[in-house]
């Protein structure tokens, strides 16, 4: 991974409650993720997204997660978001069509050429790398072999997949990602975060920054 990043950013994803937004912000999260894909246990509708998004303070990035969804929906809800995250088979042109910065999530299936993906999605602000499970677009709670990530990838990497307070420091030392993304690893149940786990996750990330 590029060595110029002075610190690893943190995204807390799958937020569904005001109290969890407050906990994530208080702990120092850089970005908050809202799932708009209805197949997720953490999914929000448009009304709830608007309510939660309005609670996020300045300088914390609001990220919307989509999976092969209708462009009209994405256009409507993007007013509540700062960054779009695409988890499906969206084309580069589709991802770039909403006047918002965007990132592309890739599931680390066998044979995936990350260098080719970085070239194909050159307009992405980063590539989010997640574990692969057939038929599941993300949120598996599983890790993957971090050594598969090339050191010279042309795009910043957001590392996801099975991260927890217990393994995030190891993951950062192994990958040196631009950011890490956690959802289930700081939850009591799907969509219900645990403030203590959020605090510990951020603490473990901060401990890696001087090593």
TrEMBL record:
<comment type="pathway">
    <text>Amino-acid biosynthesis; L-tryptophan biosynthesis; L-tryptophan from chorismate: step 3/5.</text>
</comment>
<dbReference type="InterPro" id="IPR001240">
    <property type="entry name" value="PRAI_dom"/>
</dbReference>
<dbReference type="InterPro" id="IPR013785">
    <property type="entry name" value="Aldolase_TIM"/>
</dbReference>
<keyword id="KW-0822">Tryptophan biosynthesis</keyword>
<dbReference type="Pfam" id="PF00697">
    <property type="entry name" value="PRAI"/>
</dbReference>
<comment type="similarity">
    <text>Belongs to the TrpF family.</text>
</comment>
<protein>
    <recommendedName>
        <fullName>N-(5'-phosphoribosyl)anthranilate isomerase</fullName>
        <ecNumber>5.3.1.24</ecNumber>
    </recommendedName>
</protein>
<dbReference type="GO" id="GO:0004640">
    <property type="term" value="F:phosphoribosylanthranilate isomerase activity"/>
</dbReference>
<dbReference type="InterPro" id="IPR044643">
    <property type="entry name" value="TrpF_fam"/>
</dbReference>
<keyword id="KW-0413">Isomerase</keyword>
<keyword id="KW-0057">Aromatic amino acid biosynthesis</keyword>
<dbReference type="InterPro" id="IPR011060">
    <property type="entry name" value="RibuloseP-bd_barrel"/>
</dbReference>
<feature type="domain" description="N-(5'phosphoribosyl) anthranilate isomerase (PRAI)">
    <location>
        <begin position="10"/>
        <end position="203"/>
    </location>
</feature>
<keyword id="KW-0028">Amino-acid biosynthesis</keyword>
């Amino acid at each position: 991974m590029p060595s110029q990043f002075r610190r690893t950013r943190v995204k807390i994803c799958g937020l569904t409650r005001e109290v969890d937004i407050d906990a994530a912000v208080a702990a120092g999260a850089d970005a908050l993720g809202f799932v708009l894909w209805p197949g997720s246990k953490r999914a929000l509708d448009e009304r709830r997204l608007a309510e939660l998004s309005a609670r996020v303070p300045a300088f914390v990035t609001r990220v919307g997660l989509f999976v092969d969804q209708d462009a009209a929906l994405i256009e409507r809800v993007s007013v509540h978001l700062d960054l779009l995250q695409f988890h499906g088979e969206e084309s580069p042109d589709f991802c770039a069509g909403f006047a918002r910065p965007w990132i592309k999530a890739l599931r680390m299936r066998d044979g995936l050429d990350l260098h080719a993906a970085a070239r194909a999605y050159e307009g992405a602000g980063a590539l989010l790398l997640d574990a692969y499970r057939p038929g599941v677009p993300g949120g598996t709670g599983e890790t993957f072999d971090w050594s598969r990530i090339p050191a010279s990838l042309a795009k910043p990497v957001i590392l996801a997949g099975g991260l927890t307070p217990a393994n995030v420091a190891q993951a950062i030392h192994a990958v040196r990602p631009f950011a890490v993304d956690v959802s289930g690893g700081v939850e009591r149940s799907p969509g219900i975060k645990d403030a203590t786990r959020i605090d510990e996750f951020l603490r473990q990330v901060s401990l890696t920054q001087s090593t």
